Amino acid sequence: MDFEYGIIGGGPAGYTSGMMLAKQGHSVVLFEKNELGGTCLNKGCIPTKSLIHSSEVYNGLINSANIGVDLTINNFDFAKVAEKRDNTVSKIRKSLELAVKNSGVNVIYAEADIKDKNTIVADGNEYKVNNIIVATGSKPREVKGLEFDGKFILSSDDVLKLDTLPKTVLIIGSGAIGIEWARIFSNFGVEVTVVEMAEHLIPNADIEVSKRIERIFKQKKIKFYTGNCIEKIEEKAVTLKSGETILPDFILSAVGRVPINVDINDVKKLGDACGEIQLAHYAIQQAKEYVLGSKCDRNLIPAVIYGEPEIAWVGLREQDCDETYTKITMPISALGKSWCDDSTEGFIKIVTKDDKIVGAHIVSKEASAIIQQIVIAMQNDISVNDLKEICYAHPTYSEGIFETLMRI
Ligand SMILES: Cc1cc2nc3c(=O)[nH]c(=O)nc-3n(C[C@H](O)[C@H](O)[C@H](O)COP(=O)(O)OP(=O)(O)OC[C@H]3O[C@@H](n4cnc5c(N)ncnc54)[C@H](O)[C@@H]3O)c2cc1C
Fold first, then answer.
1. Residue 350, SS3?
2. What is the three-class DSSP state of 379?
3. Does ligand 1 lie within 6 Å of residue 45's CB atom?
4. Which of 58, 92, 203, 279 is the most buried (most CB within 10 A)?
């Protein structure tokens, strides 16, 4: 055999498993048809967060008179914002390429195919391997009548190629990608409309979270339609099932992703290719579990949506619980830090049973950081009483955990 492990795909699932296996002393070859880092680094997590940051700075400056800093913005160049986004990605990619190389993983930049359970073919060469890992990721879901054309109907990949801003945009789907883009566009002053087929925005969230985001959207004048969908598109006029007509510059269709699969037995699939939870940290978790043989409870995989403010949750939701559960909600405005930051919107909601946390739902600045503390508590079975005894730094958003638990 040429290698012990052959990995197809250089995203979080592929490079994490590759580097960990190489660290254990195994010989590894990894095939990547585009660039290392996969969707996460090149078309997903990282470029969108760079844009979110730029849009927040822009919006903060526009409204800075509220905090006594009265500025005049003379120039705004979205092409520069896009350049910063691309530079961020390429800097991180260079570090990743170096880390993968230093770990001893052999990277082949080519599209790979599986010939049989011990043979990978790429660039006309055959590679003999003991084990194959498929980490080929996923691609944007295309729905009938909304086929991507890169001009009027854009995928989440297409929208990242923009170097000018639209005036109006219609976003289909209010999952993580739709909500993030609604934040980016609205921060930059683009008129945003979101259409969601389910009865509430972010349909897989706790119902109180969904309702709060709807309230926030109204405050921010982000139009949204729920229980609705596109009936027809004529030229650039989009008519909804409910009868309204919208005239967007383009449509961003963000209705989920489908696995890129290689149909063969006796191979291990990791990450988005499995079609389970399509998140980068879940892909990394699966890679860790494969290499180390450990197993983590799927209920303990945190979800984060980078809305304004952030949204994060783990475990049971309101709608999953009967009356034997205790649910306690604390407004973020109860925290001194939120007033200092002008970020009083949101809440922390904790669900407990038998003195243990079984779920948490957070709408708040820094929700992405707060949720991790809850995950640590849940995974380690730390009781509510023990959590109350911890010393929480002040003023922080973390002390919101203590403040919430004190209300039980
Ligand atoms: C807009 C957007 C924002 C996102 N934001 C977040 C976020 O904030 N947090 C989060 O956790 N997740 C986020 N995600 C999801 C995250 O990007 C994915 O869950 C993650 O990238 C999955 O990792 P993966 O390794 O399974 O697949 P991928 O990252 O998709 O990597 C798969 C790789 O395989 C390569 N490949 C495929 N077929 C072949 C072949 N035949 N031969 C060689 N190479 C091949 C591809 O080129 C790709 O590089 C976001 C996704 C999008 C689209």
1. strand
2. helix
3. yes
4. 279
Give the position, in ligand 1's atom list, of the atom nearest the Cα of 273.
Answer: 26
The class level of CATH for 142-253 reads alpha beta
Which CATH homologous superfamily contains domain 302-405?
FAD/NAD-linked reductase, C-terminal dimerisation domain (3.30.390.30)
Q: Are 142 and 148 in contact (CB under 8 A)?
A: yes
CA of 386 from ligand 1 middle (Å) equals 38
pLDDT at 251: 98
Classified by CATH at the fold level, domain 2-139+257-292 comes out as: FAD/NAD(P)-binding domain (3.50.50)
How many whole angstroms from 106 Cα to the centroid of ligand 1? 20
Query: Looking at ligand 1, which atom is closest to the CA of residue 138?
Result: 30
Please say whether the beta carbons of 177 and 253 come within 8 A: no
pLDDT on residue 264: 75
Residue 184 to residue 181: CA distance in whole angstroms? 5
pTM of the model: 0.96
Span(s) in the chain for CATH 3.50.50.60? 2-139+257-292, 142-253
Q: Is the predicted pLDDT of residue 1 greater than 70, yes or no?
A: no
Q: What is the pLDDT of residues 195-239, one digit of tens each?
A: 999 999 999 999 999 999 999 999 999 999 999 999 999 999 999
Which bin fits 150, alpha (ψ -120 to 50), beta or left (φ > 0)? left
266-286: pLDDT as tens digits? 789 999 999 999 999 999 999
Sheet-wide strand order for 303-305: 303-305, 310-315, 356-364, 347-353, 326-331
Which regions of the chain carry the CATH code 3.30.390.30? Answer: 302-405
Percent with pLDDT over 70 in the chain:
100
- How far does the chain reach from its first CA to its final CA, in angstroms? 60
For the chain, the C-alpha Rg in angstroms (whole number) is 23
